[in-house]
Specification:
There is one protein chain. The protein contains four helices and five strands; from the N terminus they run H-E-E-E-H-H-H-E-E. It is an alpha+beta fold and 178 residues long. It has one domain (31-158). The strands form two sheets. A three-stranded antiparallel beta sheet has the order 1-2-3. A two-stranded antiparallel sheet has the order 4-5. Helix 2 packs across helix 3. It is rod-shaped and about 110 Å long. The chain starts with a helix and ends with a strand. Mean pLDDT is 78; it is low at 22-30.
Amino acid sequence: MKSQRIIHIACVLVACITCLISIDVQAETSTSVLVKQGNTYLYSTQSMDNAAYRQFLQTECPQAWQQYKQGSNCAIAGWSLLGAGLVGASLSSAFGFVSGFGMSSGPSSNGKISAIQTACICGFTLSCAMLAVSVPLLSVGYTLKDKSVTTYNQQCNRQALELSFFMSGSEACIALNF
């Protein structure tokens, strides 16, 4: 009776050790997580720049690719508006100053604002609006690009659940690997 109990305990231990070894081996072979470090994307043993990352997403995960593409488009629009706003504000300020708008106290001697002054005010106002809109566009664009990493890891880098069943003597072990 005592020898059966020892055999029974030994079988349970062997079954549990077999389960643990199986879980460890499967954990080591599981898919890697995509990580962004600066301008480099790391996946498994791969290191990717922006161009390689775009290509990787395009082939591996359409959802993350769409998010990355939207972010890139927002960032391009933000940089374009920022550049146009800076150039427009500089030119309208310089032209207004050269035309004498910066020297006078406002309207000309007859009480009216000249067409040049009106153009400078409109150009400067439009340029400031471009600058104001560019900041949120840049922020949203880069946030969407960064979130594409999370989208990939959550939606496209999933392993299937695996149910393992081991039997040793009269003992059985069930392992659920995910």
